[in-house]
Design a protein that fits this description.
The complex is a heterodimer of chains A (164) and B (158). Chain A has no helices and 16 strands. Chain A is mainly β. In chain A, strands 5, 7, 8, 10, 12, 13 and 15 form a 7-stranded antiparallel beta sheet that branches. Chain A has a 3-stranded antiparallel beta sheet with strand order 14-11-16, with no helix packed on it. In chain A, strand 12 and strand 13 form a beta hairpin. Chain B contains no helices and 14 strands. In chain B, strands 3, 5, 6, 8, 10, 11, 12 and 13 form an 8-stranded antiparallel beta sheet that branches. Chain B has a two-stranded antiparallel ribbon with strand order 4-7. In chain B, strand 10 and strand 11 form a beta hairpin. Chain B is elongated and about 95 Å long. Chain B starts with a strand and ends with a strand. The interface between A and B is large, with 38 and 75 residues.
């Protein structure tokens, strides 16, 4: 009887397996810009006016040393001041300045009123930040009515600044 | 592989040849090509967030983005060579950036997500674009926020 020996030898050489995972690293960054700010330094004050049958205007300019002109009967000895604000915006960032585009009403606390309009500023409505404080001067025109009632007239207006 | 037949005695041994095979494929490979940059974000009086989508679009939530000074905006990009085999991508849960000039100020990134763009030249590789969301505190201190370590992206054959 023949003996058979089954020999089966399988040699697997050069083990191969795939690297089944890989990793990469990425950097991340963000640049945070400081918020633009505006604060009031000085209120607007037109000074004193004498009433008359005509009325007229009192005009404050937007210069650092406020100038006052107008057709109303202005008491020239009375003090006056344009509005002054402090703005702080990130260096090199441009921004726009918004002043009232419609009339503002001043009231004597009763029924008498006057309007203020023609708002303007020394920066021409826009500027560029420096990351340091910047000064904004705002001028306007007060409209005194004919036979304007005697009194102390006050009101408020808003100024806003926005990054472009 | 090698099949060895060792002859002892021709009458007492039988050999059989069988076929076997193994498929060799290249390792999966991932290479970063672009870092993730959120660009310029204006700090707000309230907290908020900005989402950078993998396609590069930024969406602000409660914050202002500058129109004129976008800054450096880019989703991260990495190229994966996959030899036309399927794979999965693993991204971080969260990641922190630190103010370069004031290390106590941090920003947190999360909601990492990816977009896969198959390479048109061959079926062997894809471009992976990665976006995320960054969160700012109220009055977040201005400055450049980075992380020197970088965040990890992993690809694994399925």
């Amino acid at each position: 009887m023949k003996n058979f020996t089954l020999v089966l030898i399988a040699l697997i050489t050069g083990t191969t397996f795939a690297q089944n995972s890989d990793l990469a690293t990425a950097n991340a960054s963000a640049e945070i810009i400081s918020a633009i700010t505006i604060s009031k330094t000085t209120d607007m004050d037109f000074g004193m006016v004498a009433n008359n049958v005509t009325g007229g205007t009192v005009i404050l300019d937007n210069a650092a040393a406020t100038g006052r002109t107008g057709s109303a009967d202005i008491i020239t000895a009375s003090s006056f001041q344009n509005a002054v604000f402090t703005i702080n915006a990130e260096n090199l960032y441009t921004y726009s300045i918004s002043l009232p585009s419609t009339d503002i009403t001043l009231s004597d606390g009763g029924t008498n009123t006057m309007t203020v309009n023609g708002f303007n500023d020394n920066l021409g409505g826009s500027s560029t930040g420096t990351s340091a404080d910047q000064t904004l001067y705002v001028g306007a025109t007060l409209n005194v009515g004919a036979d304007q009632a005697v009194g102390n007239y006050t009101g408020t207006f808003d100024v806003s600044v926005n990054y472009n | 592989m090698l099949l060895l037949a060792i002859p002892f005695n021709a009458q007492s041994i039988a050999t059989i040849e069988i076929e076997t095979q193994v498929t060799v494929i290249d390792p999966i490979k991932l290479t970063k090509s672009v870092d993730l940059n959120f660009g310029n974000i204006v700090s707000g009086y309230n907290q908020g967030s900005v989402t950078l989508a993998p396609n590069g679009e930024r969406t602000a939530n409660g914050l202002q983005l500058s129109n004129t000074f976008k800054g450096n905006v880019s989703p991260a990009e990495a190229i994966v060579s996959h030899g036309n085999h399927s794979y999965s991508i693993s991204l971080p849960q969260a990641f922190q950036l630190t103010n370069y000039d004031a290390p106590s100020e941090v920003l947190t990134m999360d909601q990492f997500n990816s977009l896969i763009i198959p390479s048109t030249e061959s079926g062997d590789s894809d471009i992976i674009k990665i976006g995320a969301t960054i969160h700012l505190d109220a009055n977040q201190k201005a400055g450049t926020y980075t992380n020197p370590s970088g965040f990890n992206v992993t690809v694994t054959y399925n």
